[in-house]
């Protein structure tokens, strides 16, 4: 089992013919992802050879869906064009849009998220500014290294790309049902809560690891959801225990104001919901091992 992404997912790449899109399409194909097309209006009707695999290029997302049955798009479009790319995906009613691009204006993210809601939430958005998601051994959409883990029993949801990779590597001998990098911008599509619900409902996920960071109240809201709705063990980590107040740290959403959004406040909220929280990624991995062993 998996959440959001399986071996049967048919993936298109918006921005496939750019340098970043080409690089990661090749890596996704090597991981077994069923990439069925790219989208570039200026190169419609052509194809790209990825080590013997010919991937056609379509003019629009709607055409790609019509010709291939695609149900996932991954977006590697430069930030100034990302809003229109996401809106096009939403209008085509593709079920899942994974927005890798970073540096997107918050107003643009708010705009395409509102557009998705207005269209009836038919398209799940993951990101922006995220590493994507992977179901090891089945499909990999985004920029997560495919060789750092294996299929297993842990579900992972994380705001941080690099911490996603570290946790997957530290627990590689146990493996993951799915790992989802939701991104750390102030406005994102899929949240911790969305992933927690999906992992709770997934029979092959036995334990959930949740990685958060300073800023906002997403982790506190997730803690309230866990307390009321999640029966599986959850282990957490919150990045930023040593972050200075009032300074943005890495992600645009990672900023502390007064006592709001601190790592300590989030840790306390999660622990009050029964979540064991590590002070470092390695300690969090040890807590996950102990939870599974018990």
Automatic annotation (TrEMBL):
Pathway: Carbohydrate metabolism; tricarboxylic acid cycle; succinate from succinyl-CoA (ligase route): step 1/1. CoA binds at residues 17-20, 43, 100-102. Pfam families: CoA_binding (PF02629), Ligase_CoA (PF00549). GO terms for molecular function: nucleotide binding; succinate-CoA ligase (ADP-forming) activity; succinate-CoA ligase (GDP-forming) activity. It catalyses: succinate + ATP + CoA = succinyl-CoA + ADP + phosphate; GTP + succinate + CoA = succinyl-CoA + GDP + phosphate. GO terms for biological process: tricarboxylic acid cycle. Its EC number is 6.2.1.5. Succinyl-CoA synthetase functions in the citric acid cycle (TCA), coupling the hydrolysis of succinyl-CoA to the synthesis of either ATP or GTP and thus represents the only step of substrate-level phosphorylation in the TCA. The alpha subunit of the enzyme binds the substrates coenzyme A and phosphate, while succinate binding and nucleotide specificity is provided by the beta subunit. It comes from the Bacteria. Substrate binds at residue 165. Belongs to the succinate/malate CoA ligase alpha subunit family. Transmembrane segments: none annotated. This is Succinate--CoA ligase [ADP-forming] subunit alpha. The gene is sucD. The keyword Mitochondrion does not apply. Keywords: Ligase, Nucleotide-binding, Tricarboxylic acid cycle. HAMAP family: Succ_CoA_alpha. InterPro entries: Cit_synth/succinyl-CoA_lig_AS (IPR017440), Citrt_syn/SCS-alpha_CS (IPR033847), CoA-bd (IPR003781), CoA_lig_alpha (IPR005810), NAD(P)-bd_dom_sf (IPR036291), SUCC_ACL_C (IPR005811), Succinyl-CoA_synth-like (IPR016102).
